[in-house]
């Protein structure tokens, strides 16, 4: 209940007292004075006006509008009253009525700056930005130092990428009001927009001198420091804000972002979770948590948060995009494509989504649909280097090498620091047999962030073919997949011939097999402590060190040997009159091109009906589903005897032939000198070159190629014919 002031009698006394209390911010006491006036005279226009304004200041907009309407009926030509009525209507969201009030006020007093300024604000809400700007320019004609007009017009210019004009206005604001914190802060924000981060830092530091307790300024300082990659200082800013505002989800989210920048993912996720506890619907915290978990490879947890976002906010484009990326990582291509298409329904001009759609369609072997997505992406963003790079890779896969190189060159011109372009160029050169240039470009893999994990922080130099000094030691290490290690370990003997002591580090599953390499002084499993050494080199960099060309590839018939004692223990050691043929129909399911290089089992198993051979499954592990599919073909499964590649090699040594897709077994059979038929997709890996049926890497290998993209049936038919020819003496 309001208390009526005592000692006052006339409306004039109540009015003076009320105005004084109003100015002091004592709104309740001021309202008591206005009520006393209205009790004596319900049609006191000034009391109604001031009472309405006090209610507006208390955000009681509906009551305020009613009182001001009453006052306006009593004083229809009061421009101040009309202007204030417009303010209340604007706060209530009734922009059309508010605009009418400001127009009437200006008609009465054409130089009324407050009405002009607020008219601009209303027009901005109505998305009539040009007219809004004209209003603020009109104010500045009447009063060049009008603070609100300078600020509003500056913000408008910045929002519409007119940074230079915005900086000029904020500069004028600071000239007239040098201690105004908002001016310093908005100047800093505009400088950030132009990329002038050091200058922006100066302005925000000045703002903090005038308002050291401003959390907004401290937050802006943290954002600027992040742009400058001064992450620890930025984190300190955000932590101070979080300490002052422990219930602020924004502050918690900002702390998490910086910790993510510092790759302190666990700590970042704690902050995001804290932000979500404070505000479960906080979009940025939920999204950033999903991204942070994705960076750690915690795909299922990341997917959970993306899904929550899309359920709560079905129009969250970046959540659909992120979820598609997770499914792509998991090789769930159909689900990835659905997510990207959902994102495109919401944002049809999103070039990144079109590009990622193309990536999925390419992996699904739907190249022409992928091309159409890339063309759309480039139509939206003509200088899209990643899209040009992907376009080039697809042309490479279709053996259109000159056009692919043109795309790569265009992409490099746009993004010279985009390392993966040279990585792709390396593949394009190597598959054409241009090995010297290809090996050189292949080294770019160590600078590509996606493959950065392949590179370690070495304390010793990389060997590039230099002469060794007496007694020097080199560490040769496996870098990529099992097949790569088997293929390139052939170079170890060449390094030994140069006079170095060789330490060889390989994957644990290859240790027993590669222990057979002659001359290796020490063999260690990846992950074990590294011995002292003078040089280091990846096995896959050795072809470059030896300047390998097609004519100088070391291709000894069998550079890997299996000890006789091991061969005698092979699980296939039993008497049979039929040829023994090992087979592998699928490679590593996590390989990016697995869908292209692996053959669907129902199609491959038609080979296994050849009646004059016994087939041995070299697939490892063998799933129950696979055994069920092949249950009637009397295939042998020695997988329980396979612990590592040495066991697989012992089995291969007992076989007459190996038939396999592009997999580690193909390299193993070739390295053992065993006759091997390798079935290749049209978009095969660079090492198998193009068109030829043989390979300079393995003398015992024969290549069977798809005649066109996805055509495995032709390959299977050709192999069936060759099986009949190869074992024709059994048929007679």
What attributes does this structure have?
732 residues; mainly alpha; 5-stranded parallel beta sheet; 4-stranded parallel beta sheet; 38 helices; elongated
Description:
The chain has 732 residues and is mainly α. Helices cover 58% and strands 6% of the residues. It contains 38 helices and nine strands. A five-stranded parallel beta sheet has the order 6-5-7-8-9, sandwiched between helices. Helix 36 (664-671) links the parallel strand 7 and strand 8 (676-680). Helix 15 (249-261) runs parallel beside helix 17, helix 22 runs antiparallel to helix 23 and helix 25 runs antiparallel to helix 26. The N and C termini lie far apart (114 Å).
Task: Give the secondary structure arrangement, pairings included.
Elements: H1 11-23, H2 27-40, H3 45-57, H4 61-74, H5 79-91, H6 95-108, H7 113-125, H8 129-142, H9 147-159, H10 163-176, H11 181-193, H12 197-210, H13 215-227, H14 231-244, H15 249-261, H16 265-278, H17 283-295, H18 299-312, H19 317-329, H20 333-346, H21 351-363, H22 367-380, H23 385-397, H24 401-414, H25 419-431, H26 435-442, E1 473-477, H27 482-488, H28 492-497, E2 501-506, H29 511-514, E3 522-525, E4 535-538, H30 542-545, H31 564-568, E5 580-584, H32 594-597, H33 601-604, E6 614-617, H34 624-629, H35 645-653, E7 657-661, H36 664-671, E8 676-680, E9 701-705, H37 712-726, H38 728-731
């Amino acid at each position: 209940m309001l208390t009526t002031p005592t000692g006052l009698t006339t409306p004039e006394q109540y009015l003076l007292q009320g105005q004084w209390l109003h100015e002091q911010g004592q709104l309740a006491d001021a309202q008591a004075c206005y009520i006393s006036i209205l009790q004596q005279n319900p049609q006191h226009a000034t009391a109604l006006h001031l009472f309405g304004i006090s209610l507006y200041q208390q955000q009681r907009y509906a009551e305020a509008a009613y009182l001001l309407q009453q006052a306006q009926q009593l004083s229809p030509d009061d421009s101040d009253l009309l202007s204030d009525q417009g303010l209340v209507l604007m706060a209530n969201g009734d922009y059309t009525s508010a605009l009418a009030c400001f127009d009437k006020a200006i008609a009465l007093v054409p130089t009324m700056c407050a009405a002009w300024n607020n008219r601009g604000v209303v027009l901005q809400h109505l998305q009539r930005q040009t007219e809004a700007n004209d209003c603020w320019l009109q104010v500045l004609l009447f009063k060049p130092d009008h603070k609100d007009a300078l600020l509003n017009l500056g913000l408008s210019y910045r929002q519409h990428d007119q940074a230079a004009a915005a900086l000029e206005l904020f500069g004028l604001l600071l000239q007239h009001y040098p201690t105004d914190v908002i001016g310093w802060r908005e100047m800093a924000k505009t400088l950030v927009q132009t990329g002038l981060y050091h200058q922006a830092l100066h302005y925000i530091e000045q703002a903090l001198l005038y308002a050291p307790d401003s959390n907004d300024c401290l937050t802006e300082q943290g954002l600027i420091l992040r742009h400058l990659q001064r992450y620890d200082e930025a984190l300190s800013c955000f932590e101070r804000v979080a300490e002052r505002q422990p219930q602020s989800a924004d502050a918690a989210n900002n702390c998490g972002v910086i910790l993510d920048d510092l790759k302190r993912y666990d700590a970042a996720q704690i902050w995001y979770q804290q932000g979500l506890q404070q505000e479960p619907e906080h979009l940025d915290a939920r999204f950033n948590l999903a991204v942070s978990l994705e960076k750690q490879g915690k795909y299922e947890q990341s997917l959970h948060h993306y899904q929550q976002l899309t359920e709560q906010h079905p129009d969250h484009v970046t959540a659909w995009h992120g979820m598609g990326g997770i499914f792509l990582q998991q090789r769930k291509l159909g689900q990835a494509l659905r997510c990207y298409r959902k994102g495109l329904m919401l944002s049809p001009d999103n070039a990144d989504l079109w590009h990622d759609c193309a990536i999925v369609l390419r992996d699904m072997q739907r190249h022409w649909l992928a091309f159409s997505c890339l063309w759309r992406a480039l139509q939206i963003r003509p200088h899209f280097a990643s899209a040009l790079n992907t376009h080039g890779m697809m042309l490479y896969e279709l053996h259109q090498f000159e056009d692919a190189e043109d795309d790569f060159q265009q992409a490099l011109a746009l993004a010279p620091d985009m390392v993966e372009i040279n990585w792709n160029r390396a593949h394009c050169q190597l598959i054409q047999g241009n090995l010297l240039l290809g090996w050189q470009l292949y080294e770019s893999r160590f600078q590509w962030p996606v493959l950065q994990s392949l590179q370690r922080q070495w304390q010793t130099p990389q060997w590039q073919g230099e002469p060794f000094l007496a007694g020097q030691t080199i560490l040769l290490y496996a870098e990529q997949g099992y097949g790569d290690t088997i293929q390139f370990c052939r170079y170890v003997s060449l390094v030994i011939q140069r006079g170095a002591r060789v330490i060889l580090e390989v994957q644990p599953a290859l240790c027993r097999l590669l222990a057979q390499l002659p001359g290796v002084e020490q063999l260690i499993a990846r992950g074990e402590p590294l011995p002292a050494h003078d040089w280091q080199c990846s096995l896959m960099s050795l072809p470059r060190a030896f300047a390998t060309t097609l004519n100088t590839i070391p291709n000894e018939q069998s550079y890997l040997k299996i000890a006789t004692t091991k061969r005698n223990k092979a699980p296939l050691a039993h008497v049979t009159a039929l040829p023994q043929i090992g087979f592998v129909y699928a490679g590593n399911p996590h390989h990016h091109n697995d869908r292209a290089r692996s053959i669907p089992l129902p199609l491959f198993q038609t080979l296994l009906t050849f009646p004059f051979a016994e087939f041995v499954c070299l697939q490892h592990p063998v799933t129950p589903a696979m055994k069920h599919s092949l249950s009637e073909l009397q295939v042998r499964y020695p997988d329980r005897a396979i612990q590592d590649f040495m066991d697989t090699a012992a089995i291969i040594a007992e076989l007459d032939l190996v038939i396999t897709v592009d997999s580690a077994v193909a390299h193993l059979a070739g390295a053992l000198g065993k006759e091997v038929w390798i079935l290749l997709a049209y978009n095969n890996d660079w090492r198998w070159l193009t068109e030829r049926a043989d390979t300079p890497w393995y003398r015992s290998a024969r290549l069977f190629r798809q005649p066109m993209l996805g055509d495995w049936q032709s390959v299977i038919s050709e192999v069936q014919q060759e099986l009949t020819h190869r074992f024709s003496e059994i048929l007679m």
